[in-house]
Amino acid sequence: MRSALSPTTARASAAPRAALFLAVPTVLLLVLVAAEWGPLLGLDGDIARTTHRWAVAHDGSTRTARILTDWVWDPWTMRALCAAVVLWLVARHRAWLLAGWLAATCLLGTLVQQGLKAAVGRDRPTWPDPVDSAHFAAFPSGHAMTATVVCGLLLWLMRLYGAGALVWRAGLAVAALSVVGVGLTRVWLGVHWMSDVVEGWLLGALTVALAVAAYERHVPEAQRPGRGGPA
Predict the structure, then answer these.
(1) pLDDT of residue 73
(2) Where exactly are the structural domains of the chain?
């Protein structure tokens, strides 16, 4: 007898597969950076020198990049957005479990990011004519990872609460612009190597996939939003 997965089961099984798929390049890039693999460092250097020349030559674009990276897409802005959604889940839906899960995932992402920075200890690019500055270690990019975690979680929540097609497409476009945009601003401003940003994207996506998989595994379907429960 042929069996078929229901749409809900198919969606539920996607997160573990995504996590497995993302884990391989995430770990591989971490190993290559920690081992200071020559070809990767050379590529990082070529990209950084090129984008720095552009940043110095195009002052208006550089000022715009600084505003976007320091205010619009800053990790603290993203965390504030996450906190606002947590409060909305509690006040509007009494979804304490889901709100706690969201907050815990964002906190875990920050701890993982800071732990890896300290463990790898990669130096940031240095320039005789810098256009911006940043502190602490470079790898992975905290801006790129935080934006990926927050935007990825919010997109999943939109699906969970049955957002309409127009709202979903708008949210997806804003999330994609934010995640890609913040990563590119960090390279443009000369405060990160390209591989720092790529690892931030990969690690952020992996964090979201693992968090969603854990939620789907431990929260009964009947208790999820739209399934009869407030979770």
Answers:
(1) 97
(2) 11-223
At 10, the pLDDT band (50, 70, 90 cuts) reads very low
Q: What is the DSSP string of the chain?
A: ------HHHHHHHHHHHHHHHHHHHHHHHHHHHHTT-HHHHHHHHHHHHHHHHHHHH-HHHHHHHHHIIIIIS-HHHHHHHHHHHHHHHHHHH--HHHHHHHHHHHHHHHHHHHHHHHHH-PPPP--SS-S----S--SS-HHHHHHHHHHHHHHHHHHHTT--HHHHHHHHHHHHHHHHHHHHHHHHTTSS-HHHHHHHHHHHHHHHHHHHHHHHHHS-GGGSTTTTS--
Average pLDDT over residues 185-191: 98
- 112-144 pLDDT, tens digit per residue, is 999 999 999 999 999 999 999 999 999 999 999
